[in-house]
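Entry type: protein chain
Record version: 2
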Amino acid sequence: VALDMLIEEGLEKRVERHSRLARRFYSVLDAMGLKAFADPRFRSNTVIAGLYPDGLDDKLFRKRMNEEHDIVIGAGFGPMKSKMFRIGNMGEVSTAHVNRTGAAMALTLTKSGHQVDMKGLTAVLDASS
């Protein structure tokens, strides 16, 4: 089924959509004051990796995202365990998914005691993709 969906969309269109949505995800991270893990020249379009702000509890953040928003965020591993998160940007992901994930992250960060520029985030989320 996934292959049929890819063939229907077309590989070039799929790659372009993932690239466009990755840029949107990275803009969302920037608007929230979060840093992307990789240098912009080498960032992935299918796995969005970001760094947690100092003092944020990785396990609690990911647990809240899952239990309160039904969104699964991947953990870092190796020396980056508990310092970074990973978000999948593959398959049938859409602007709505990016917006929902960004809004949920902002709420969860705020609930965890971290400030988020909600006005800046809202501007990014309201922008067309």
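Comment: The longest strand covers residues 47-51.
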